[in-house]
Amino acid sequence: MKQTSTLFYSLLNVVALLLFGFALLPLLILSFYNHPSAVDDYCFADTAVHYGVWQAQKLYYDGWSGRYFSNLIVHSSPLVWRWYGAYRFLPALFALAWIGALYTMISELVPTVSARMRWVAVGLLFFLYVLMLPSPVEGFFWLAAVACYTVPTILSFYLIAVILRWYTIQKQPLKALTAIWAAFLVFAIVGSSETSLVWMILFLGGLLAYQLLFQRRIDVFLLGLLLMAFFSGWLLFRAPGNAIRMGGNPNGGDLLFSTRSAFEYLAKEMVGWFVKTPVLILGVLWLPLAQRLANSSHPTRRLFTIHPLLALIAWIGLLGALIFPSYYGIGVGPAPRVMNVVYTFFLLGWFYNLTVLVVFSNRWNGLGSGWGAIPLALIAGIAAVWVAYSVYKSVPLHQIYGDLVSGRAAAYDREMTDRQKVLNDPTLTTVRLPVLRAMPPSIFIGDIHPSDMKHWWNRCQAGYYGKKVVILDSLTAKKP
């Protein structure tokens, strides 16, 4: 029996790592076909080139958005330093940073688990993430979206690890320096987007509220981080540009409408995530690992000792709250880049809640105990079929692999490289660019306006390259 169980989980480890590679490898390859986007990337770069990074920050803070940290990233992007080729490596770096930060967080959460099992957990989570990622292009390839949503997600994983590590440090000044570093991470996360602000305040506030209500104590370290989150939120919301941005939709600022709409939207999405991904069956396979944590005496076990109902309410509440700013801020549903973040915390919350349930009940004896070889084979079969079906139906994976296999990504790379040569021609003041024939959805978000030469995206690209006008000219498009 034990030998059967061991063989089963050894096979599971291999499969998990294969799925990990299946999700990661195409993203790394696609990265080398990536180019800056005409949508916003050139506007940020043009502003910073002409006015300087600091003045560009001020212009956007006063005129459009208070997202001071994500604005800093885009206003100091490689385009600002004329390093066009860096965009071929940035998506790969962001994907690897996402994975690395997740591994760091899991290592701090479950330090008693072997490194191999941590990588299995990371691999399965990353596979599930890519499997239903609402928008791959906004998750890794379009810098304007990555700065606002993917970067703070990466920093959030890392922040949780830093917070846990702070409690294990005994010596000064390392403990004080770690606290300062954690406070800076909070500052950066909140300053990336309103979604990140909501997550950070609810996360830190929830931890403090739990300590106060159930443990009758206040953690000064967490209190300091929460105060930093409120200060950072004040900086974000006091920006004059936010009022301009929120004033464009009559439903913006409607509390009841926004709350109802957020949770209705969440309910619909969660049904799809449970049905279209194998999180349910993989949750069953997660239970023995959770049991190992339940039987552990390591201090991190206390992180999973809250009541399952409270954990469930906190999870659902957090997911709805992450969607809420989209409705409250601009009166419409969340953009795919927002749902990238919501889906991330859906996955993490699902496995966290399963662990809490196991630790709370402490009755689970493992898949290999008392079930026999038939249930293990049955579970393996169901998991294989479910995973295969999910891969077959996955829109993101179809996009990613379709763009590679069909040659769309390579064709897009060639066309954009040709455009770059034209834009860099010093003899041209009026530039006519051919309409792109290849528009791979996994790495392409949009182009300059086809008819309005005064459109922002046209003007920004013209200004960046020192041209009078940049026009899309369908007559110059390459014929098939």
TrEMBL record:
Keyword Magnesium annotated: no
Keyword presence, Membrane: yes
Spans traversing the lipid bilayer: 7-33, 86-105, 117-134, 140-167, 220-237, 270-289, 309-330, 342-360, 372-392
Record keywords: Membrane, Transmembrane, Transmembrane helix
Coiled coil: none
Protein's name according to its UniProt entry: Glycosyltransferase RgtA/B/C/D-like domain-containing protein
Organism of derivation: Larkinella knui
